[in-house]
Design a protein that fits this description.
GO molecular function: glycerol-3-phosphate O-acyltransferase activity; glycerone-phosphate O-acyltransferase activity
Shape: elongated
Keywords: Membrane, Transmembrane, Transmembrane helix
InterPro entries: GPAT/DAPAT (IPR052744)
Structural class: mainly alpha
Strand content: under 5%
Radius of gyration: 28 Å
Number of strands: 0
Order of helices and strands: HHHH
Largest sheet: none
Distance between the termini: 41 Å
């Protein structure tokens, strides 16, 4: 029995969509446009209509990529607007957010250290301190994300 990793299945799905489904969908849209040209633009020659439909088919992947990139960066900008307004209206909010982030980071780190045996059963617990001269303690441990730094 062969076990397929999730990455392989996901990569295969992406290849199928990018290589087969997307061009077929673009072709369908181009065919609809060609039908529109046949019905509504009788003054154009058949060759001109075919060239326009092919151009629509060729431009669609480029537009799709550009719009995906713009949408991704647009969402990031949209998400950053509210904290920006809060910081401009009330400068103390920045300090409050920093304290909240530090508290959350400390809580997550302590949770991971408390439940380390469940998450990482084969890993021995390593205690790190911020300074070499201090005695190691649970409150001074670095999170598992920053251990290599």
């Amino acid at each position: 029995m062969v076990k397929i990793a999730g990455k392989d299945v996901l990569a295969t799905w992406k290849i199928i969509v990018a290589g087969i489904a997307a061009p077929m969908l673009y072709g369908f849209y181009a065919a609809i446009y060609f039908g529109y040209l046949l019905k509504r633009k009788p003054e154009l020659t058949l060759q001109t209509k075919m060239i326009r439909a092919c151009m629509v088919w060729a431009i669609q992947p480029i537009l799709h990529y550009i719009l995906m990139r713009l949408g991704d960066s647009g969402i990031d900008i949209y998400k950053s607007i509210k904290p920006l307004f809060l910081a401009v209206r009330n400068p103390e909010v920045g300090q409050i957010l920093r304290v909240m982030r530090n508290d959350l980071s400390r809580d997550i780190t302590s949770f991971v250290h408390e439940h380390q045996d469940i998450f990482f059963p084969g890993v021995k617990e390593q205690v790190h301190s911020h300074h070499d001269d201090e005695k190691p303690s649970l409150t001074k441990k670095k999170s598992f994300i920053h251990r290599g730094k």
